[in-house]
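Agenda item 2: P61 complex prediction
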Amino acid sequence: MSTDDGTPAQRTRSWAEPFKIKMVEPLKMTTRAEREVAIREAGYNTFLLRSEDVYIDLLTDSGTNAMSDRQWAGMMLGDEAYAGSRNFYHLEAAVQELYGYRHLVPTHQGRGAEHILSKIMISPGDVVPGNMYFTTTRLHQELAGGTFVDVIIDEAHDPEHLHPFKGNVDLDKLGALIERVGAGQIAYVSLAGTVNMAGGQPVSMANIRSVRELCVRHGIRLFLDATRLVENAFFIQEREPGFAEQSIAQILHEFCSYADGAWMSAKKDNLVNIGGWLAVNADDLFEGLRNLIVVYEGLHTYGGLAGRDMEALAIGIEESVQDDHVRSRIGQVRYLGELLTDWEIPIVQPVGGHAIFLDARRFYPHIPQDEFPAQTLASELYLDSGIRSMERGIASAGRDATSGDHNRPKLELTRLTIPRRVYTQAHMDVVAESVKAVHDVRAATRGLRMTYEPKYLRFFQARFERLQANAVRG
Ligand code: P61
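Presented output:
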């Protein structure tokens, strides 16, 4: 429990994690010489490192969260029937209660749900507006014949802008797009909260209400990427007038009520190591996706998951909306952000929900974007301390589907992603010190050249080499 009883005076008191630790996993430390070999063998791509060569793993918060004792107990209650597992009904009830949608199908993870929704909703030539691209989401929209159009507010592309809801849709951009292509060409509006590629930035309740209103006026459906919506609800509670006294669960429920459905990578907010789901209200839409799920994922009462996975997920959903949990989770991310800000390390501001995003453009102003500054920063951090982060810049943005040229995003970021309930405040101190050490020698650092580029989602498997050896360090 936190020491906070909710009164304004108490809100200034320290908080602590609302759990204690009863099982530990030892971490392995490596030498710099070992890391030199490991990162070279990994082609300077942190996705290609072996996790046993990593000390603090901040690659992602996806599937890396610690489950609770209740979730592990739930794993023993798996009903592994092929059809009609009791764990499915528990999961369905949890989504219905907390997210508020009528119909549910499980999927193996988020991109499984994106695949099915895109296939059902998108016809070749359609346009899909959204609040900034996400890699897998946009790919599935494109594979279904659609074109993604970014309608997020301009502030989202500026790492220094302090807008409190940088995930918001620009209603003028969305309105102009509808005017230009016609509502009939718009498959649906795709809205994510929080927005991963913008730095975990939230969408306000006022914004989704307006988006909803515009969609209804034009007969366009609205779907949510619910992956980190619980964290989005926290920011509404904290920043949006009128929500301070509402619970995360109440805010989440209202937010979801403005959309026709949602897809989920349950590996994030929902606190499981694997899983996803797709939930909608309309009966006819549900009939279509329930049928397609048996082609690609599995029967509609398991969708690629074991019964025990669905039980852990149902319990994870219930735990994920606890106010204490969300506050301590985002509090830990902020703690790291404050350390780095105090040391004048350039990061995306305001600090978002799931990660600190280092601004590689300002970190390495001498490295041009085509020499992968964010990828360089990720490998330098690994070399310094064994901490693993993730590139979120030009490599992640891929190539333009028509011209074949690199997409060159304004944001060139390296993400330090914090898994939920896994690391301590001391780990955050160690991370901050490593970032500072890499920052201190930034002028001597050189960029990278891509030597292998796969066709889809290239950042996962691409290989790089150093352009020039870095200056020798003392
Ligand atoms: C991540 F480098 N995210 O952030 P799946 N929507 C959203 C996500 O954040 C998300 C998915 C859908 C990951 C894993 C990952 O470019 C990358 O369960 C907002 O991973 O299929 C996943 O959900 C897809 C890392 C995905 C990446 C794509 O670390």
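Discussion summary: Residues 323-342 form the longest helix (20 residues).
Owner for follow-up: CH.
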